[in-house]
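**Fold tokens**
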Amino acid sequence: MRLMGQADSYSSLGEAPIAFGRQSVLFAGQNSEGHRVCLKLYQTIRGTRLRWGPPAETSALMDVFQNEVRALQALKHPNILPLLDYGHVTPEATGNLRNIEAGMPFVVLPLCSRGDLDGALRARDFTPLDEALPVLRQLAAAIDHAHSSGYVHGDVKPQNVLFSDDGSTIFLSDFGLSSYSLFVEPASGSGEGPGTTMYLSPEQLTLNTRTSKSDLYALALVAYHMLVGELPWSGPTLFSVIAQKAVGYARDPLTLNPSMSRRTAAVLRWGLSTRPEDRPDSALAFCEALGSGRLGVEVRSRLEPWLTATRDELLRGVSNSVQQRQGSRWSRLPTTSKATIITAVIAAVGGVLAALVSALF
């Protein structure tokens, strides 16, 4: 497969993709000078065949492609995966590859052969704080830079955190779902909202909106996953997890990793606050609070509910201050969101009862 971008020509290294996304397929490739790159083609999947799809899907994929190109052209940062080139597949470029169709848009990115954070997390139980902080600080720097430029990423997760070949630098990737706005934006896409459900914030799930604070929630989840070794929820179904997240439940990280300091656990819970306004003001502020430095007066006052919460409150995953607000938050939810949460809770309870009956009989 040979592709012609705006600045150079590219050829794929083999016919087999190196990775698949929900809306893309990635090939290892090289430019005209032989430098290795990643060729990312936007597509939908029908069975085992890649499709450039019917008009409705084609329009949606073009939006994703244009969002990513626009964002990466605007965002220049050492920890954001840079855009090298872009274009569209021409009829003569498809060659013998039956799964590649003319008209597919593509972008050219650096090839990160060392892999992503998701793979690193799967390889160990948990990451010590002194090893996790350098990664989290670089990720936070990328997020804050995007926010300062008016962009909300909307899909921060370990799969979108890539390592440089020497492992010293991380890159935030996949800005296809990003939005440009300094204000609250509706979450585009289906009723489930964009991104991976496990890393979506409560407001993305229940109100179908996202702001910069939604990215901070996802950052706190990445930190929790690194420092604890798993996510804050468990349940028999995805609906049960959504219900726990919607009402602000999160397992106390100290019960899963007793070696963690109480301060670190409190900062994680702060980042996972149900209300966006209760979360840290920036990604770097969250990371600095995780570190061992002295806490400022304002940060300490905001952490106080989590630092002084009783064991029962921590086991429920919420502090008194958050609990007292649940009623007002529920009253603001639209009817459809309330129905979704109620359905999820019923499904979760049903799943637990079914598991108990199965275990007993």
About this structure: Residues 2-110 form a domain with the Phosphorylase Kinase; domain 1 fold (CATH 3.30.200.20). DSSP finds 14 helices and 15 strands in the chain. The chain has two domains: 2-110, 117-352.
